[in-house]
Amino acid sequence: MQKNNNCNIKRRKTREISIGKSKKQKILIGGNNPVAIQSMCTTKTEDWKATSEQIIALEKENCQIVRIAVPGKDAAKAIPKIKKYINIPLVADIHFDYKLALEAIKQGADKVRINPGNIGGKDNVREVIIAAKKAGIPLRLGINAGSLEEDIVKKYGRSCAQGMNESARRWVRFFEKQGFKNFVVSLKASDVIETVDAHKLFSKDFDYPLHLGITEAGLNLSGIVKSSVGIGALLLAGIGDTIRVSISGDAVKEVTVAKEILKSLGLYTGEPVIIACPTCGRTEIDLEKIATEIEQKTKFIKKPVKIAVMGCVVNGPGEARDADYAVCGGKKMGAIYKGGKLVKSVEEVKLVDEFMKMIKKDFRKNN
Ligand code: SF4
Q1: Which of the following CATH numbers is that of domain 2-264: 3.20.20.20, 3.20.20.190, 3.40.630.10, 3.30.70.20?
Q2: For a disulfide at 320, which of 12, 297, 337, 357, Cβ 3.0-4.6 Å?
């Protein structure tokens, strides 16, 4: 077990995998590397312009690995065009047709995700492994509760964590038999407990990096909640090397939520951590507006600086003491703190500007 420097979670040490061939697009996952954030494009991959634009928007939000659907040859052929424009590794997502995996590898995909349960048997999987080995790229062995082998479903009577684990073990052994260890594993179900249990069972015996996610998590709010609970529970147990939050719709939002999950556990160090009180009848300032403005304006700081925005003196001074910077509301005014010490009190209308003056002075030289 390794200890992460920025939090108290003891992360399970896994095998290191490199994704991306060019220096610009390469990322290391597993080993001692931070948990990486992934997302998946919602565009038609063959529309390489729209797909590239979406990936660039994802990169701006600090997405580190992106997956695209490859449901046909045209999508596979868009891979080299997309790769010209982007700065993060591109993963081809393949279902049913192993020949599309071979085509995606030929077209320069940095990694290919296959679900061995729906790709037509061992011979086809072997072909994909041979091609990946030859191209020097990793694969993701994606086990999905919805497509477990028939004998496993029969044995357990339904899809379940034990069945997912059994399927994963079976395929891991098959990959290893082909002399191939350059892969990541995912065990996804739409049920949170099933997903968490499957990962826990699997990670007892294997050190392959694990990609976490709750599949088909749902629309906006339910997707966020289910992903946060499932991914959070696993990260707290020290399990997980990459994560994807699944939300129907906006791919960029998936990355924003993923960052917040990691931040909440001290596993993301590239942005400030904002603490804001929920407001109540004692609130004397427009806290939501002020906290939102401060959050947006401090995004340029690429450090996990703790900033508290509090509505009144009940918990404000206490939080301010524990934060690197803080504002604490009073009657139409606010107090600004730095390192737990009161710097000044200003009118509410000047609060954000005065706060940002101090922040910019402190961080300009380092950014
Ligand atoms: Fe209410 Fe003050 Fe607590 Fe904010 S800090 S929730 S305003 S009591």
Answers
A1: 3.20.20.20
A2: 337
Alpha helices in the chain (DSSP H): 48-60, 73-77, 79-85, 98-106, 122-135, 150-156, 161-177, 192-205, 220-236, 251-264, 287-297, 316-322, 348-363
Q: What is the pTM of this model?
A: 0.90
What is the residue type of 130?
A: I
**Domain ranges in the chain with CATH number 3.20.20.20:** 2-264
Which of 38, 27, 34, 37 lies closest to 6 in space, CA to CA? 34
Q: Which helix (H) or strand (E) holds 37?
A: strand 36-40
> β-pairing, 10-11 with 273-276?
unpaired
Rounded distance between C-alpha atoms, residue 247 and residue 226, angstroms:
10
Nearest residue by C-alpha to atom 1 in ligand 1: 280
- Show Cβ contacts of residue 300 under 8 Å, excluding neighbours closer than 6 positions: 363, 367
Q: Can you give the C-alpha Rg of the chain in angstroms?
A: 23
Give the number of the atom of ligand 1 that is nearest the alpha carbon of residue 316: 5
The whole-number pLDDT of residue 260 equals: 94
Whether 318 is in the pocket of ligand 1, judged by its Cβ within 6 Å, is no
Per-residue pLDDT tens over the stretch 60-112: 999 999 999 999 999 999 999 999 999 999 999 999 999 999 999 999 999 99
194-to-15, 122, 163, 217, 233 alpha-carbon distances in Å: 24, 26, 10, 13, 12
Q: Where in the chain is the domain with CATH 3.30.413.10?
A: 273-366
In contact, 6 and 59? CB cutoff 8 Å: no
For ligand 1, whether the C-beta of 311 sits within 6 Å is yes
Tokens of 352: 């954000």
Q: pLDDT tens digits, residue range 173-190?
A: 999 999 999 999 999 988
Is the CATH code 3.40.50.300 the one for domain 273-366? no
